[in-house]
Amino acid sequence: MKKTLLASTMVAAAAFAAPAFAETLKIGLATAQTGGLAGYDGPVIVGLHIAVDEINAAGGINGNIMIELIEKDVRSDAAQTAIAVQELADEGVSVIVLPCDADPALAAIGTVTSAQIPAISTCASSPTLPMIGGDFMFANFPGDNVQATVSAEWAHQQGHKSAYIIYSPDSQYTTMPLYFADVFEALGGEMLGQDTHSIGQQDFSAIATRIAALNPQPDVIMTSSYEPDFPSMLKALRAAGVTAQMIGSDGIDSPTTFSLGDVGEGVVFTTAGYATDGSPLAEFNAKYEAASGKPSETVFNAVGYDLAIVVAEAVKAAGGSTDPVAIRDAMAELENVRGATSLITYKGTNGMPVREVTLIRVNGGERELVGQPSPTAELIPAPRMQ
Question: Which pLDDT tens digit goes with each residue over 124-171?
Fold first, then answer.
């Protein structure tokens, strides 16, 4: 009798602790755990896990839909991304998370379109991603054309009259400076020239020498190159005596940029948020430190948290459905979702989110908030393959 009573009590307690008739939302992660994109996907996925753990601990989405993550390493490779996405579709996932670059993410177009599964990149910012990817493709970061407009308007407002751009044609993301040039010239600025490089290029001395020989020197140099290219480029420029204001993008929002010492001092770049006292981002950073035992060193952690929140809000808006098409349709209508980094809207954006862009300056190895301006809509260049 005692055993029966104890067993009944345990069953009742378990039933109280877990949501009745719990459903499962399967999210497939086809992301780069190794390779060149791992430094971006990795932090995003950590933040996503924090959000999922938080949601599941509260009983799931709407109190009864638990999230299950199925993870595959695409090794920063387009072909591996296509394979992993097909495997995830075969496993019946309702949402797919893709790598932090438009080029491998676009490798998933065929599968996500035919299987009709909404796919969202961890942090790809090319506005061509959803444009080419179709109705089931979403981005999770301010667009390259938007970031470039914010940078160009800031440079203009600072009184900078001339600029030079350095970009790589190897990926859509690293062509962001072409958007910058469009806006800078539209504002009356003069472009003094441009240089290209390969992703992974080790020697930037020839580019630095060419720029150092210019007379007059450019007021601003803009690039969207990232590690390891950006530190090498910046060191070469400074060693050649080039003192122009350096403007970068979200790809350099990493601990490396803040550890470059005097070389990195004064660099300004666009990113997705800045933590002020009491802000949602500050609250997330506290959660991150509690979960990991160390402070967050990049906003990409919070970007991953936001991704999970967006998916959860889409499921809620779909009436609690885990049907992929219903989730896709609901996601496309989301407005003002409160993320850790900013409010996020997809309604009327064709898959490219409207969210805050932040300008950060490296000051003494720390983040200094320059501003969080809204770009002039008329100046934002139309998305294009570059």
Answer: 999 999 999 999 999 999 999 999 999 999 999 999 999 999 999 999
pLDDT digits (tens, 9 = 90+) for 269-278: 999 999 999 9
Distance CA 124, CA 37 (A): 11
The number of helix segments (H) and strand segments (E) in the chain equals 13, 14
The separation between CA 256 and the C-alpha centre of its own chain, rounded to angstroms, equals 18
How long a stretch of residues is the chain? Answer: 386
Cβ pair 353, 314 in contact under 8 A: no
The answer to whether residues 311 and 250 belong to one domain is no
- Ordered DSSP codes for 129-165: HHHHH-TTEE--S--HHHHHHHHHHHHHHTT--EEEE
**Burial bucket for residue 336 (CB in 10 Å: 0-12, 13-18, 19+):** exposed
Regarding whether 113 and 152 lie in a shared domain, the answer is no
Domain of 35: which CATH number? Answer: 3.40.50.2300
**Which portions of the chain are predicted below pLDDT 50?**
1-18
- Contact call for residues 365 and 258 (beta carbons, < 8 A): yes
User: pTM value?
Assistant: 0.90
